[in-house]
Amino acid sequence: MSKNTIQIFDTTLRDGEQVPGCKLNTEQKVVIAKQLDLLGVNVIEAGFPVSSPGDFQSVEAISEIVKNATVCGLTRAVENDIKVAAEALKTAKTPRIHTGIGTSDSHIKFKFKSNRDAIIDRAFEAVKYAKSFVEDVEFYAEDAGRTENEYLARVCEAAIKAGATVLNIPDTTGYCLPSEYGAKIKYLKENVKGIENAILSCHCHNDLGLATANSIEGVINGARQIECTINGIGERAGNTALEEVVMVLKQHPYLNLDTSINTKHLYGISQLVSENMGIYTQPNKAIVGANAFAHSSGIHQDGVIKNRETYEIIDPKDVGVTESAIVLTARSGRAALAYRAKNVGYELTKLQLDDVYANFLSFADRKKEINDHDIHQIIETSKVYQ
Ligand code: KIV
Ligand code: ZN
């Protein structure tokens, strides 16, 4: 069976940049956009052009330099937003306008003080207007996660009638369970008239820690695009992490879902975004955290030294990490000590290892982690070495 390719829509520079307290300048955004293009993402959401002159400038600059990916600009369902986005995107090889409106009852009632039918009219008009500037128009139904499915299907139908090529179904508040989100995508796939003319896109937030699981359920149920950010950065608890969904699909080939991402660049771009944003990545972050390929307990270390696959489901090289780390702590065993000692130049006999290990344990009980310098000291001060 041939694999279905899932489009990766990166929104690090738009939704990701909405992290409280973070701001990237145009120069930084251009550097990141170039790397995203090299990484192989299909779409780069470069910003929200009408929001500020700086954002307009960034979208314009990114449109000029991106060679492969589609460049996308966000708008509300407002004519001026759309006109300004089209202007910012005018040099992009393949521009996309991403327009939309809130569709849940709370958005309709409290945000727009409007009604369901009027929202459908606005959705239709916004897509139609965007279509007068560019061929590729994506429509988002904000808060789709809490929008009743039947009504959501009507909104989607109107957007398709107006020419939308992609329908974004955001779980804006990160509320859905994976089963609910998957069922929503399935419902739309089966009930929206004209759905064969557009693709469904997952845009999940991580308020309950479910963004990756929801996006994966979405594509299993028929969506063909995932919107995500590097390191999962974004407003509140963040967005779906790009590196996570890409590696989930890669490590589960039986799903027959694939991406065009060059995974060897994942670690490098994670570092680049983290440095430029000034947000450090939690050590236990899946795929790109400092501890993602570090082993510290004796049982695990012994297994990994014998064969990496005992405790690793991903080859670190596949995501751009040079090698797994064997971290020496008081929980480490003889195998790990012998391995690290060998790396710094000591080939220990069994007898020597017993002696050095006893010295190591008393050292490790006083220090959290043993580095190469400590290993020299431990070995040189051990009985057998004196
Ligand atoms: O989370 C969301 O609903 C969004 C839309 C503006 C696409 O980011
Ligand atoms: Zn969002």
TrEMBL record:
Q: Which UniProt keywords apply?
A: Amino-acid biosynthesis, Branched-chain amino acid biosynthesis, Leucine biosynthesis, Manganese, Transferase
Q: SUPFAM superfamilies recorded for this chain?
A: Aldolase (SSF51569)
Q: What superkingdom heads the lineage?
A: Bacteria
- Asked if the Swiss-Prot or TrEMBL record annotates the protein with the keyword Phosphoprotein, the reply is no
Annotated pathway, please? Amino-acid biosynthesis; L-leucine biosynthesis; L-leucine from 3-methyl-2-oxobutanoate: step 1/4
The record's listing under Pfam families reads:
HCS_D2, HMGL-like
> Its Gene Ontology biological processes?
L-leucine biosynthetic process
> Which enzyme class, named as a word?
transferase
Known EC number: 2.3.3.13
Q: Name one GO molecular function term.
A: 2-isopropylmalate synthase activity
Ranges where the Pyruvate carboxyltransferase domain occurs = 6-267
Task: Please state which protein family the record places this protein in.
Answer: Belongs to the alpha-IPM synthase/homocitrate synthase family. LeuA type 1 subfamily.
What PANTHER family does the annotation carry?
2-ISOPROPYLMALATE SYNTHASE 1, CHLOROPLASTIC-RELATED (PTHR10277:SF9), HOMOCITRATE SYNTHASE-RELATED (PTHR10277)
User: By what name is this protein known?
Assistant: 2-isopropylmalate synthase
Q: What is the protein's species of origin?
A: Mesoflavibacter zeaxanthinifaciens subsp. sabulilitoris
The major lineage groups are: Bacteria, Pseudomonadati, Bacteroidota, Flavobacteriia, Flavobacteriales
